[in-house]
Amino acid sequence: MKQYYLPLIFVFSLGFAQQKPKFGITLGATYSNIRGNEAADKNKYDFNFLIGGSIEVPLNTKFSFLGNINYERKTFKNSSAFNAYYLPSNFDPVFYANQQAELKLTIQYLTVPLNLKYYLDAQKKFFVNGGPFLGLFLNSSSTINGSDTNEKSNNLFTALDFGANFGIGSYFKISEKYALNLELRHNYGLVNISNVPVVNNGSVKTNSFNLIANWQFN
């Protein structure tokens, strides 16, 4: 694990050598799915949430280093039909009806994006940012038609997720001390997170969008 911490320590030390950092509290919505094989491609995106903290260190008038540590829930779903058979009484015939089951799987991560932020205008009202992210697997859970299955799938996933993210947003100055950042971010997983063999030698990779509100203070 040491090789993952060294770049983080280096970037933080570089930023602190420049200007005073700005800290923030992050709250947002996630819109996630998986990809990489035929079965995964049949799943659909679903919503969940993230919460965490941020640090922004100005490097010059245009560029900043932006780091986040977020607790993030990535959920995707799949619906399938099945036949349910009923026997109302001993005197009534058996009949069946088509039923629909919706399965949702949520993967919980501690994500650490390390981004370079660029302000597009002199007033610093609009920005873009991008860079790598590291995801530390925490837990997983599933539901069927909204009810918890009480089954854990932790052994199905690797300990780490890694990928790239890109965001675009707006900066709103509230006062000399406080500001609000609104951002739309795309996280594109680059590594296989499956801990078991995948159909047709495929892979399982994450793909998610974040709508982020970040309350920032000096």
> What's the CATH topology name?
Porin
Beta fraction? over 45%
* Rg, nearest Å: 22 Å
H-E order: HEEEEEEEEE
What would CATH call the class? Answer: Mainly Beta
Structural class: mainly beta
* Strands, count: 9
Major β-sheet annotation = 8 strands, antiparallel, barrel
Question: Which architecture per CATH?
Answer: Beta Barrel
The parts where pLDDT drops under 50 for at least 5 residues are none
What is the count of DSSP helices, taking H or I runs of 4+ residues? 1
Instruction: Assign a percent range to the helix content.
Output: under 10%
Task: Note the main attributes of this structure.
elongated; 218 residues; mainly beta; 1 helix; single chain; Porin
Quickly describe the structure.
The chain is mainly beta. The chain is built from 1 helix and 9 strands.
Could you explain how this protein is built, in words?
The structure is a single chain. By secondary structure, the protein is mainly beta. The chain has a single domain, classed as Porin (Beta Barrel). The protein contains one helix and nine strands, in the order αβββββββββ. An eight-stranded antiparallel barrel has the order 1-2-3-4-5-7-8-9. The longest helix has 15 residues, at 2-16. The two termini are 31 Å apart. The model has no long low-confidence stretch (mean pLDDT 87).
